[in-house]
Amino acid sequence: MEKLLIDGYNLLYKDGVLKNLAERSLEAAREELLTSIAAYRSGDVEILVVFDGQDAAGRRKVSARTGIQVRFSRPPKTADQVILEIVEREAKKTSLTVVTSDKKDIGRVARAEGVRWISSETFLRRLGRTGSRAARRQQEKPPATTPAEVEYWLKRFGPDPEKDG
């Protein structure tokens, strides 16, 4: 069985659309990322996505998506440290692939341990989250503004003086 070990925020912040979404709602960005990963997953692949910090729901959770687990590091431990611990404990290192753009720490250790390593950018291409500039521009614009977003911007910048004047 192949196992993918993903540095969640490293992957999320390499995707411009998800990065922009995270500025409004980190939870929504995580869910969108997990949805993309679930669509990519096939067959007998087990996926563990590790995020920094503790989720409000707890330290570990099983995703509603089959074959995907989500883990949050418990501070002061980082996701990088959790990933390295998992790499060290893995019995079948040749079946493990680590996804991160952290070449110095995680990538170096993973390769030294005999684990495959791919960059977040490469994995995003596999997810189909990158493409032509026109497609990326189209994805970057949200389909509609939500009432909560309108309220946020009105509070931040105030009502339109020309309409209310």
Characterization of this structure:
The structure is a single chain. With 165 residues, this protein is α/β, with parallel strands linked by helices. The protein has a single domain, classed as Rossmann fold, CATH 3.40.50. Helix content is 49%, strand content 17%. The chain has 9 helices and 6 strands; from the N terminus they run E-H-H-H-E-E-E-H-E-H-E-H-H-H-H. It has a 6-stranded mixed beta sheet with strand order 3-4-2-1-5-6, with helices on both faces. Helix 2 packs antiparallel against helix 3 and helix 4 packs parallel to helix 5.
Question: Main traits of this protein?
Answer:
single chain, 165 residues, alpha/beta, Rossmann fold, six-stranded mixed sheet, 9 helices, 6 strands
Beta-strand level of the residues, as a percent range? Answer: 15-25%
- The amount of helix comes to 40-55%
Label the structural class: alpha/beta
Any idea what the radius of gyration is? 19 Å
Q: What are the SSEs and their pairings?
A:
Elements: E1 2-7, H1 8-12, H2 16-24, H3 26-40, E2 45-51, E3 60-62, E4 68-72, H4 79-89, E5 96-99, H5 103-112, E6 116-118, H6 120-127, H7 133-140, H8 147-157, H9 161-164
Parallel strand pairs: 1-2, 1-5, 2-4, 5-6
Antiparallel strand pairs: 3-4
